[in-house]
Specification:
This protein is α/β, with parallel strands linked by helices. It has nine helices and 16 strands. It has helices at residues 22-27, 68-73, 109-122, 142-147, 167-176, 190-201, 236-239, 250-257, 261-276, and strands spanning 2-11, 14-20, 33-37, 45-53, 58-64, 81-82, 84-89, 100-106, 126-133, 151-156, 163-164, 183-187, 207-210, 226-229, 232-235, 242-244. A seven-stranded antiparallel sheet has the order 6-1-2-5-4-3-7. A seven-stranded mixed sheet has the order 11-10-9-8-12-13-16, sandwiched between helices. The chain has a two-stranded antiparallel ribbon with strand order 14-15. A hairpin with a 2-residue loop joins strand 1 (2-11) and strand 2 (14-20). The structure holds nicotinamide-adenine-dinucleotide and FE2/S2 (inorganic) cluster. The site of FE2/S2 (inorganic) cluster has 12 residues, from loops.
Length: 289
């Protein structure tokens, strides 16, 4: 069991948990993630590591309520426990002195980008971060990103905070005003990562994206996280999650991620109906939590 020490919403539907997980906290490197399961019969889901404190033995994860499991997870609080947390998983981000690096965080993807941005800054890079969200309330980790960036640019889709637009508008401006960019890291929704990739491909700017396909075992055995990279099958859990954006087949990624959409929607609807009937969250899953 992994005890939740702190739990706080960063934005509507986006919660940060501080977990007691000393072994994972000691090993975790930027770019890696964990897979967790809340209760015995529950599904296993990949979750973003936002930070860790090896001395305190704690791991920070950030979770967006999307399906049943993430809604259930975000109903937990300090003092509750999570059944299992496996990790750290995946290859760490490549950290070296590249020169000028642009880190693009789209929505909750910012939490995944943050530790890598911090490590790139520590490695001596000039870090320009672009953080985008649908609206002001959904901008997360602004202070943290500012602390590890030489420059932080913010966009909101509706213009309710800083500048109206998409993260790609800011990236385009940087490219057009002649900023020499040595590396772009983009983490966020697939459409955003694809748009960034198309934009940088033309100028041959090296671009990495962090993919989060459906995952089950996280060890390269089940094939659930198969992605098509440069025409070849790779597993995001062991070969990624970061890949060269210009080699990623985003169409296949979209297709595979939507394979279980109907079942996921039904499961979420049933869960919400159960909760609506004033049942506590644990009464709405088989075996409780
Ligand atoms: P969102 O839909 O609110 O989008 C966030 C930002 O992405 C927008 O504000 C905009 O700036 C940009 N964007 C969106 N559509 C775009 C387009 N067509 N062109 C250019 N830019 C665009 O994001 P959200 O609801 O916070 O969802 C975040 C997504 O990130 C989820 O789909 C989640 O699966 C994914 N995610 C990925 C990882 C990872 O490791 N890759 C980690 C966590 C979350
Ligand atoms: Fe099973 Fe990657 S999650 S192979």
């Amino acid at each position: 069991m992994f005890k939740i020490l702190e739990a706080k919403f960063l934005a509507p539907g986006i919660k940060r948990f501080v977990l007691e997980a000393p072994r994972i906290a000691r090993k975790q490197k930027p770019g890696q993630f964990v897979i967790l399961r809340i209760y015995e019969e529950g599904e296993r889901i990949p979750v973003t590591i936002e930070n860790s404190d090896p001395e305190r033995g704690t791991l920070n994860i950030v979770v967006q309520s999307i399906g049943k499991t993430t809604h259930l997870l975000n109903s937990l609080n300090a003092g509750d426990s999570i059944l299992d947390v496996v990790g750290p998983l995946g290859k760490p981000s490549e950290i070296e002195k590249f020169g000028t690096v642009v880190v693009v965080g789209g929505g909750v993807g910012t939490a995944m980008a943050y530790p890598t941005a911090a490590a790139l800054k520590r490695a001596g890079n000039r870090v320009i971060s672009i953080v985008g969200a649908r609206n002001k309330e959904l901008v997360i980790l602004e202070r943290e990103m500012r602390e590890v960036s030489d420059e932080l640019l913010i966009t909101t889709d509706d213009g309710s905070y800083v500048e109206k637009g998409f993260v790609t508008d800011k990236l385009r401006q940087l490219m057009q005003n002649g900023t020499k960019i040595d590396l772009v890291l983009a983490v966020g929704p697939i459409v955003m990562m694809k748009a960034v990739s198309e934009m940088t491909r033309k100028d041959g700017i090296r671009t990495m994206v962090s993919l989060n396909p459906i995952m089950i075992d996280g060890t390269g055995m089940c094939g659930g996280c198969r992605v098509l990279i440069d025409g070849k099958s790779e597993f995001a859990c062991v070969d990624g999650p970061e890949f060269d954006a210009h080699k990623v087949n985003f169409e296949v990624l979209v297709q595979r991620n939507s394979m279980y959409r109907d079942a996921e929607q039904k499961s979420l609807t049933d869960f919400k109906e159960c909760q609506h009937a004033a049942q506590p969250a644990e009464a709405c899953v088989p075996g409780g939590r």
